[in-house]
Design brief:
Number of domains: 3
Number of helices: 12
Structural class: alpha/beta
Order of helices and strands: HHHHHHHEEEEEHEEHEHEEHEHE
CATH architecture of the largest domain: Orthogonal Bundle
Strand content: 15-25%
Low-confidence stretches: 1-5
Shape: globular
CATH superfamily of the largest domain: Globins
CATH topology of the largest domain: Globin-like
Distance between the termini: 30 Å
Radius of gyration: 22 Å
């Protein structure tokens, strides 16, 4: 997993692991300070990092969790290989390179010193510098393979490529789909159901480029990509989603936007056991792709699709899902509206809960996939755990920095 030729000494491992309690206590303060230093010393990196997530505090918390996990497993980094691969997909999609890692390491160590003060001795700093080298090498190694695979894939590319918006479709009061074809009319790679692309745009009034990752909401194909984007307006003190608003209000058919090649490991499995797809709001985008793919490639697989939205007017792609499901006796679709205008338009009012899931899904021996707003995901995760669904059968993805569903 690592290209480091010299393993860490027992002393270094012990020092790093001894700092785990400190990271648990001060991790968020350290990573918040890290980003302050990073963007002050290297403002050009604002072109890569999502500044909205910075303002919301999500990115520092996600980094703190990742640093904590790395420290706790520094002597057995293979334990966090799935997390490394998940983050590496995002890094490859954002075009993060090996040369960025020394910059990150330098500012992370400075942040630890700033927050911990005299408690961060030279011995601890040196141990962490050595450990960070091993952790960075692990990421660089995995990401190098991903870059190579992407470049070698038929129709694949590295970095960003201009695509033309060939169609813009309003799917609901808040979600609009964008159909994208390469501006150079060349080939595009197929992708796995559940993957995403990164969109890079220059928003007027913002001095840096903005990059956002959006799930591909269409069935994998070799003709076009489709993203279905929710217009994120600021709520309760949260900042507006500058990219989603830009796409909704300023991008029109015929315009060009730069995107990276598909990435991500939240993908449909090839198992034959029943498939349960549970989405909330715009979380339906990767699951709609999975639904189409499962119907075509696994025609005899039992599928239960449950979507939750606030109201009928907020429910995107409903007709598309209904039409796809009508082609197979093995597909069962359910709708839950929190505040429906007409209760006859849904199967349940309020929220998805364990009682409802148990009433429509005949077995826990199934593959469960879910995606949506974090409170929604926490509720679904809690219900599945209470139902004793095997951990290996629970699959989910956060839109944005990784969170903690058990927090």
């Amino acid at each position: 997993m690592s290209t480091q030729t010299q393993p860490l000494s027992k002393e270094t491992i012990e020092i790093v692991k001894s700092t785990v309690p400190v990271l648990e206590q001060h991790g968020n303060a350290i990573t918040s300070r890290f980003y302050q230093l990073l963007f002050t010393n290297h403002p050009e990196l604002k072109n890569i990092f999502n500044q909205t997530n910075q303002k919301r505090g999500k990115q520092p918390q996600a980094l703190a969790n990742a640093v904590y996990a790395a420290a706790a497993n520094i002597d057995q980094l293979h334990n966090i290989l799935p997390v490394v691969k998940q983050i590496a997909h995002k890094h490859r999609s954002l075009n993060i390179r090996a040369e960025h890692y020394p910059i990150v390491g330098e500012n992370l160590l400075k942040a630890m010193k700033d927050v911990l003060g005299d408690a961060c001795t030279d011995t601890i700093t040196n141990a962490w510098a050595e450990a960070y080298g091993v952790i960075a090498d692990a990421f660089i190694s995995v990401e190098k393979e991903m870059y190579q695979e992407t470049a070698q894939q038929k129709g694949g590319w590295i970095g960003y490529r201009d695509f033309t918006v060939i169609q813009k479709v309003e799917e609901s009061d808040v979600i609009t789909s964008f159909y994208l074809k390469p501006a150079d009319l060349g080939e595009i790679p197929t992708f796995e159901a559940g993957q995403y692309i990164t969109v890079k745009v220059q928003v007027p009034g913002i001095p840096y480029t903005c990059q956002r990752q959006y799930s591909l909401s269409c069935q994998p194909n070799s003709e076009y990509f489709r993203i279905s984007v929710k217009k994120e307006t600021g709520m309760e003190g949260h900042p507006d989603g500058v990219v989603s608003i830009f796409l909704h209000e300023q991008v029109t058919e015929g315009d060009k936007i730069a995107i990276s090649a598909p990435a991500g490991d939240f993908v449909l499995n090839k198992e034959t056991k029943p498939l349960v797809l549970i989405s909330g709001g715009v979380g339906l985008t990767p699951l709609t792709s999975m639904l189409h793919t499962a119907i075509e490639q696994q025609p005899n697989r039992e599928i239960h699709y449950i979507h939750a939205a606030q109201t009928e007017k907020m429910h995107a792609l409903k007709d598309e899902v209904t039409n796809a499901a009508s082609k197979s006796d093995h597909v069962h679709c359910y709708t839950v509206y929190e505040k429906p205008v007409d209760e006859s338009t849904c199967d349940k009012t309020g929220f998805i809960d364990l009682t409802f899931l148990q009433s429509i899904i005949p077995t826990t021996d199934a593959s469960f996939y879910f995606c949506g707003p974090e409170p929604f995901m926490k509720a679904v995760f809690k219900a599945l755990k209470e139902w004793n669904v095997e951990e290996s059968d629970i699959h989910f993805e956060f839109f944005g920095p990784q969170g903690d569903l058990e927090a």
